[in-house]
Amino acid sequence: MTEEQSLEILEHIAAAYDHFKLSEKRVNVWSEQLKNMDFKGVLHNLNKHIGTKKFPPTIADIAAKLPEKNMFLEEQKNWRQEVQHAKASGNQKTFMDYLSPDIKAKYQPLIQEEK
Length: 115
Hints:
This protein is mainly alpha-helical. The protein has helices at 3-16, 24-34, 39-52, 59-62, 71-89, 101-114.
């Protein structure tokens, strides 16, 4: 979340709760905590809180974590891009390209039969 979005959250709270006063210290503390959160999720939680609670929320009351990246999917995406690049540049290799010459010679007749 950006600093501007954090300020928007605080302005929403101040607008809904008269006794919630904005100070420089409050803005700094909240901005520091909100910067690693999802703006839309926090805003959604805040709106639910405003509709049901008569006291202003704490940071924990409206916290919304950012979704974690799935590293497996990221690695798969990178691998696909590498393969596409290799195909486009004509450098596509098969597992046979990585075998030692004696292993290639031993299994070459079997590979030829499969083709």
